[in-house]
Amino acid sequence: MSTEDATLAVDSLYREVGRSEWARLAAGMPNPLSETEVVQLRGIGDRLDLAEVREVYLPLSRLLSTYVENTKRLGAETADFLGEPDSTTPFVLAVAGSVAVGKSTIARLLRELMSRWPGTPRVELVTTDGFLHPNAELDRRGIMDRKGFPESYDRRALVRFLMDVKSGAPEARAPFYSHVRYDIVPDAQITVRRPDVVIVEGLNVLSPPPRPNEIAVSDLFDFSIYVDADVDDIASWYVSRFLTLRRSAFNNPNSFFKVFAELSDEEAMTTAMGYWNHTNLPNLRENVEPTRHRATLILKKGADHSVERVHLRKL
Fold first, then answer.
1. What's the CA gap between 79 and 73, in Å, rounded?
2. Phi, psi of 299 (to 5 degrees)
3. Tens digit of pLDDT for each residue in 248-292?
4. How does strand 197-202 pair with strand 91-97?
5. d(CA 276, CA 22)
6. Which among 55, 77, 152, 311 could disulfide-bond with 23, CB atoms 3.0 to 4.6 Å apart, if both were Cys?
């Protein structure tokens, strides 16, 4: 089978829904978020606004509520069939995609929307940054320049964390990552105590297992979203975000990237494109983009960061 035929075969697994048709799926549904809340959720470079929330994410929230309710119902009915107490575990939602594509904003937004549902008031968000190996370990392995590639993560720790969540453990603990220090914070943890929903956001969460007999991280998801966009658009967003951070977060004296704060615009753009071409683009091409077809739903963004089309996996 040729690459083109394989792509067509994968595409046939999805329903494609245009923006206007998708927006109609939440007609009359009230938006629980204010403009101020939306602005606070928006990441650097994102153009999230009330219209985007109303036309894209309210319908998605409605769809997710259907999946969560039916997963809970199936769990209860299965327990009843077995003559056991209902022990339904948290619903796990994944958000995947490239650096700078806006997946963090989407994950935060979905946490807020889902936490407003009557049946799921407790929603936790965990990013896979916490499962990166510490910088000292990456240096020891000689892969500091491949931070974000699959081998830079403690995949087994992430699988253990999700297995604790999905097995119904009273607590599941994840390491804490500081974006200021660009490193894991020793002895700091995020504790998840049997919430209704756990959102897992990260680059490589849809990757297959490294060996056939191992569990894939995605085996532990109930629903997954891949945030997609043209590579040239993502590159532009990445550079724009780098320039913005140079004028803000990089000025923090504790920032790992403070050495970039004094760069000129031209130097900053050259530096950003260097990181993009050397690390982020190869990771996207080799590891992130090939997992797109593993998602339950794909959000396709246009050059202005707005979602143009939605692809939903057929049941």
1. 10
2. -100, 115
3. 777 777 777 787 788 888 998 999 999 999 999 999 999 999 999
4. parallel
5. 33
6. 55
Distant-in-sequence, close-in-space partners of 197: CB < 8 Å, separation ≥ 6 = 68, 90, 91, 92, 93, 114, 120, 122, 123, 124
pLDDT at 308: 96
CA-CA distance, 134 to 178, in Å (whole number)? Answer: 11
Residue located via tokens 């392995």: 141
Helices (H), 18-127: 19-24, 35-41, 50-52, 58-82, 103-115
Query: How many CB atoms within 10 Å of residue 302?
Result: 13
Structure tokens belonging to residue 91: 């619903």
Global model pTM greater than 0.90: yes
Token readout for 245 is: 């951070």
pLDDT per residue as tens digits for the range 172-217: 999 999 988 899 999 899 999 999 999 999 999 999 998 888 999 9
Taking the C-alpha atoms of residue 22 and residue 11, their distance in angstroms, rounded to an integer, is: 18
Element (H or E) spanning 198, and its range? Answer: strand 197-202
Tokens read off for 182: 């660009």
**What does the block give as tokens for 276?**
């993009």
Do the Cβ atoms of 64 and 110 come closer than 8 Å?
Answer: yes
Beta strands 197-202 and 183-192: pairing type?
unpaired
CA 125, distance to chain mean position in Å, is: 10
The secondary structure of residue 42, as a DSSP letter, is P
Quote the tokens at residue 101: 């594509």
